[in-house]
Amino acid sequence: MSMRRGERLRVAITALDRSGEGVAEVEGATLRVPGVTPGQEVEAEIVHVGQGGGPPRAWARAVEVWGAGAGREAPCPHAAPTRGACGGCPLMHLPPAVQRRLKQQAVAEALAPLGVTVEAVQAVGEELGYRCRSNFVAARDGAGQVRLGSRESRSAAVAEMTGCGVLRSPQPALIATLEALFSARAVPVAPEPGGLRYVGTRAGAGGDEALIELITHGDAAWVETIAADLLALPGVVGVSASVNASDGNAVRVQPPRLLAGRATVEEVIAGVTLEVGCEMFTQLNAVVASAMAEAVAARAPAAARVIWDLYCGAGVLGLVTARARPGAEVFGAEVHAPPTRIAAAAAGRLGVAGRWVAQDLAQGPPPGWPRPDVALVNPPRRGLDAALLQALVDLRAPVVYMSCNPVSFARDAAHLIGAGLRLDAVEAWDMIPQTTHVEVVGRFLP
Q1: Helical H runs in 127-233?
Q2: What would the mean pLDDT of 35-57 be, rounded to a whole number?
Q3: Residues near 398 by beta carbon (within 8 Å), at least 6 away in sequence
Q4: For the whole model, what pTM was predicted?
Q5: Do 298 and 430 belong together in one domain?
């Protein structure tokens, strides 16, 4: 069957793919529609047709939906496709148990070549109100008002996110207040000269404090004049600004500059207090991150006294592991310097001994470190750098591996297993409910 962009079809949804999109078979072609479930019929408008070889395939948006199917009423007024256009939570229309089954299937598929199974995806905490930080695209609506939202799926348009349910307080109310203030003050919006391009927010652990970062398309004198007004908003304790005049999709390209108030708020993960700024990476879901940090610590040998924490970020995994082992020392490495300083400060508050260095682990582990009793690794989605992977093989020390990507985890696991290490435990966690994101933790023993 030949499908064309803009064509409308009435189709029956018969399955979900691993990204949670509904699947319909139309005369030998596969059509994927987000936001719907098996058992529903959909009037679908084609938005993209696959190119190249292979079976015919296309993607569509749901114009109208009939039947309840296996879904639920999405607990958000902006959830795509029938209540809004925000695609940030592509599984929100599915009950939590169904979401976790999809994630379990994705993990099982990734780990199948290893002969390893994960029976369930573990979940703790709430399905809404967990996200500690976010970045919003600035745009003008048809009435010229400033809106802060997200990019629509496969589109440059900006979807409304006011009152987003997954954000930790006070962010949802703050976004609506910012939209009104920016509109009243006639703040320029990119691509206008010096226009607002993004707004970053971060909520503190208590849910009553927030930071704001204004990211502009070029130098903008107006950020200085509005900073005091922003700091006076309920819950706002700090305002920063940075410039991003790049052509790419990166949100931040330079460190922020403090305009008013504080540069950081407190985040607490597994009892470790971190002073973090808007731009600083920490896990989005502190409740799940806390449970996973404790799980990683429990997998380390009880007698471990030299703990390597690689791709350490703000150092939580190493600190939680060392805290349970009096006399242990942490050796942490992370490519960016600011998180290592946060880790060192947190260690001082906890009374944990350690050293943290900024190093690109593509070069392998830092030279001069003592041999570890355990190596904790938490790499980015691409997985372990080759030089570090080989170093772990050569060390033949226990490795506890936390991963945000089951596919790269499985690839690295195959290498470690092939070199003689044994994968003796794997578990999966639902770190970011309403999305396809799933994390795994595995332990390798020599």
Answers
A1: 171-184, 222-231
A2: 86
A3: 300, 301, 304, 373, 374, 375, 443, 444, 445, 446
A4: 0.93
A5: yes
